[in-house]
Amino acid sequence: MPLESSAFGQAEWFTQDQATFAAGLSCVRDAAPVVEMMNSRVPEQQWGLGKMSDASFEGGWGLRVGGGHEVRQVGIVTIVAGRVGVAVAAQPNSGSFDDGTAMLDAVGGWLESHSAQLPAGHCLWICGGSDGAGNLWRASESSATKGPAVNDALPTDSSEPTTIAEYLNAHSLRVSPVDGAAAAEVGITVPIPAGWQTLDPAQFPGATQVIVEPNLVENGFAPNAVLLVGALSRTIDPDALMALGFGDGRAMPGWVEREASDAPWLGWPSRFIRGTYVAEQLEAAVTTRYVVVGVDTQYLVQLTVTTLASQLDALAFDVAAINDGLTTNGS
To answer: Of all residues in the chain, what percent are helix, strand and coil, respectively (each to 5)?
Structure first.
């Protein structure tokens, strides 16, 4: 509710939207200074979410239109299962600031006692494109409401493409995301190792399948594998596209290459790259395979498996099983 005590706090921002913002904040590159400031509070502001064992938050208060205080907070709560975006607000009948903070203390205590039931999530880093978030498929995010995805951002200069994303843009190629069921129908699947879980791909626009290892979460990050399958709007020379398959990985910050292969995959043109890069002050280990599958209808396939570098030994078998188990029987 708008406040009348100052120019601050006038923006209308629903608590649900605040919680969604907070949930994604910790996964945004370069957001670490913001989160760090959310951890720095004077003792007298440790109410509400401050009652939880591991919460980064920011609070505010002021006089509501019509009188009385409103007290609110937005933050990131870290629990065993991952991270949760939380937004809380109190409007005490008494109008008292102290009563408002007491109400949020009760909410914070309830959240702490029920933390195991909160719908936690994890940061997923996808090696593909310079932003590390699979920007090859960025144009597909609004495809549910705007129809087929279109890579229509043309290069700003006449230089030759150096990545798959740039090639698609330069040639005005459309990449229409394919869901898991449709991908399986044309023979494109990945196995799910024991202990891994499938996440709802609707949470990751453009993704065909997302799986995570929930038992090895560190700093809010879960080891994950992301399968992206997209139907190309027209047939192309697959070798020309795959010739750029190393560029996306090599554009990652602090990239250290361990392996690169141009060998075909199950008979289809492919590129495979393995290495490490730095994300959110953590060293991530990644493998990415690109494949162009199909003849009359071509599909661009990207399989990226990401772990922390410190997890390489523990997850070596699972990473190999996922990569070796990729099927591409498109026709």
So the answer is: 30, 30, 40
Mean pLDDT of 192-219: 86
Residue 159 is given by DSSP the state P
Q: What pLDDT sits at residue 264?
A: 96
User: What CA–CA distance (Å, rounded) separates 86 from 102?
Assistant: 17
* pLDDT over threshold 60, residue 158: no
CA–CA distance, 331 with 295 (Å, rounded to integer): 6
CA dihedral over 130, 134, 138, 142, signed as positive or negative:
negative
Q: Are strands 175-177 and 224-232 parallel, antiparallel or unpaired?
A: antiparallel
Tally of CB atoms within 10 A around 324: 9
Burial of 144 (0-12, 13-18, 19+ CB in 10 A): exposed
* CA–CA distance, 291 with 239 (Å, rounded to integer): 10
Asked whether the CA dihedral 309, 311, 317, 323 is positive or negative, the reply is negative
Task: Please indicate, yes or no, whether the overall pTM of this predicted structure exceeds 0.90.
Answer: no
